[in-house]
Design goal:
By secondary structure, the protein is an alpha+beta fold. It is built from five helices and four strands, in the order H-E-H-H-H-E-E-E-H.
């Protein structure tokens, strides 16, 4: 809920990561629902910096969060995917990766006939390279975990 501390956003990041993991293992809902779950993760993990920076219970500033993101290629991908999702397009002067065309470029799907479920694997294209969404998501959570630990917050 709004008005809660940064921990509620961190918990949300964990739930959104579990959603991405479930998409890879197989869930109900099809490709559109799977994409929604993936994009929700990127938005949640990227906005953690704002929750930390806005919470007077921490000494973490938005600049601290930005520095972490700018120093981590996986968090840069998260930022670009979150901002592209939020604003429809990613402005060239606002990209963290340096590639305004960073996007979820393709996916593989396994349909489990008769169950109504499917497993998806998504790939992000950025800077002439391709990245697996689950790997980005898990690495992003590890980076934030390290950051929070070094700040004595977890």
């Amino acid at each position: 809920m709004l008005g809660q501390g940064w921990e509620s956003q961190w918990d949300r990041v964990g739930r959104r990561l579990a959603d991405v993991q479930a998409v890879y293992q197989g869930t109900q809902g099809g490709t559109d629902v799977a994409v929604d779950r993936v994009l929700s993760f990127f938005e949640a993990v990227h906005h953690l910096k704002d929750w930390l920076g806005n919470d007077p219970a921490t000494t973490v500033t938005k600049a601290d969060g930005d520095a972490l993101i700018n120093g981590c290629p996986k968090l840069q991908l998260c930022a670009d995917l979150a901002n592209g999702s939020k604003h429809l397009t990613l402005r060239p002067d606002r990209t963290r990766t340096g590639d305004a065309s960073t996007t979820i470029a393709r996916n593989d799907v396994s349909v489990f006939v008769g169950t109504g479920s499917s497993a998806h694997r998504f790939y992000v294209a950025s800077g002439g390279k391709e990245y697996d969404v689950l790997e980005i998501a898990e690495d992003a959570v590890k980076e934030w975990s390290r950051f929070l630990s070094t700040r004595g917050l977890t």
